[in-house]
Write a structure and sequence with these properties.
Elements lengths: L2 E6 L7 H10 L6 E6 L7 H13 L3 E4 L1 H7 L4 H6 L8 H10 L4 E4 L4 E3 L14 E8 L11 E3 L13 H4 L6 E18 L5 H6 L4 E4 L5 E3 L12 E4 L16 H15 L3 E11 L6 H24 L7 H17 L8 H27 L1
Parallel strand pairs: 1-2, 1-4, 2-3, 6-10, 8-12
Antiparallel strand pairs: 4-11, 5-12, 6-8, 7-9, 8-11, 10-12
Helix pairs in contact: 8-9, 8-10, 10-11
Length: 370
């Protein structure tokens, strides 16, 4: 099994060395490599640093600078023209490269995610296999994964992108069972500064001190909770529908997670949460800028997820389901009046749809190139 750890950064990625050491410590050196994408702001020393790690430890650590990415994306011209520079969505290039190189599991980390567990990669290795896991569902169709994290001041909080309507209609009677399931996403949790919305950060900052459970669990079909693009492993099967659309604020990974969840229900697959843990020493952010970038997604997520749930899927591969889902989503919003879906919201959803069309074309080109 081939595992690729990916990230994007505008810094020298010093934290990668801890991941390399952990891989070696637990005997996973022959199975793991790294793909890191830079940006126009990334110092040239980043590439030199990654090369030095490769030389020192004997593990492939590929750093793709601006020129490398331009050359690599020449064969995917539409994606190359679509993805902007100076954005976190450059990680999509690393995902594509890992996928093209045959990775079975692609692990996404941020450059402020510091290992906070033993055998980091080992916690992700259940992807794609039948595993006995607890599953959770709720009558509202939503489960707050942050219920399983302990804040230093015992505050209640929710993950970024969780439906605000369903924060009010709090789940009282979640239902648990245990079964043999196949997972295609494993979302690890965060100590320290968790991935929460900017409004919560402004009002009541959270400091996570522990994960309350001693095992991972999965969401039952029909139950939503978001997963993000940090400390998260995806199986290669979902890559054809996992696209981080630029220019939709801080909901690129969130709405993509809901797309994956909806299609996974059709494919009889599951999304799991829990280990491995990282500590997020969050890079500096302007929280008011973040709050603005979350506004439209926050307003629309509840109805967006209901749209997805109401769409009937009939296909039997992730790519086919993805194409079908977006075709039916487009028809649905086109049938809504401007009173039902105002112009600004319509433009937001259309941009999200258009981005996935580019990714579907890229996946079809990948198959042709292969």
């Amino acid at each position: 099994m081939k595992i690729t750890i990916t990230t994007t950064t505008i810094h020298i990625p010093y934290l990668i060395e801890d991941y390399v050491k952990d891989v070696i410590k637990y005997g996973r050196k022959d199975d793991v490599d790294f793909v890191i994408t830079g940006d126009r702001k990334t110092p040239v020393e980043a590439k030199e640093y990654c090369h030095s790690l490769q030389e020192k430890y004997g593990i492939p650590v590929l750093f793709m600078d601006v020129e490398d990415q331009d050359i690599y994306l020449d064969k995917y011209s539409k994606l190359k023209a679509y993805l902007p520079w100076n954005c976190i969505q450059r990680r999509q290039v690393a995902i594509l490269k890992a996928y093209e190189d045959g990775a079975d599991i692609i692990i996404l980390i941020d450059d402020d995610n510091y290992i906070a567990c033993e055998d980091y990669v080992g916690h992700h290795l259940g992807l794609g296999k039948e595993t006995s896991l607890s599953t959770v569902s709720s009558p509202t169709g939503w489960y707050n994964i942050c219920e399983d994290l302990e804040d230093r001041q015992a505050r209640k909080f929710y993950p970024r992108g969780y439906s605000w309507v369903n924060r009010i209609d709090e789940v009282k009677d979640s239902m648990w069972s245990k079964k043999e399931i196949r997972t295609v996403v494993n979302a690890g949790f965060w100590l320290g500064d968790p991935d929460i919305d900017a409004v919560t950060r402004l009002a009541a900052p959270i400091d996570v001190i522990s994960y309350k459970r001693d095992h991972n669990y999965a969401l039952e079909k029909g139950t939503y909770s978001p997963f993000n693009s940090q400390n998260t492993a995806i199986h290669r099967d979902i890559v054809p529908v996992y696209f981080l659309v630029p220019d939709i604020g801080r909901f690129d990974d969130i709405w993509s997670s809901y797309i994956v969840e909806r299609i996974s229900w059709q494919m009889n697959d599951y999304v799991s949460y829990g280990q491995p843990l990282v500590k997020q020493n969050r890079n500096e952010h302007d929280l008011w800028v973040d709050a603005y970038a979350e506004e439209m997604g926050t307003k629309m997520t509840t109805e967006f997820c209901q749209w997805l749930k109401d769409i009937e899927l009939t296909k039997n591969t992730y790519l086919e389901c993805g194409i079908e889902l977006f075709e039916k989503l487009k028809k649905h919003i086109d049938n809504l009046s401007n009173d039902e879906l105002p112009v600004q919201k319509r433009a937001y959803v259309n941009h999200f749809i258009d981005g996935h069309k580019v990714w579907f074309e890229t996946m079809n080109m990948f198959s042709a190139v292969k």
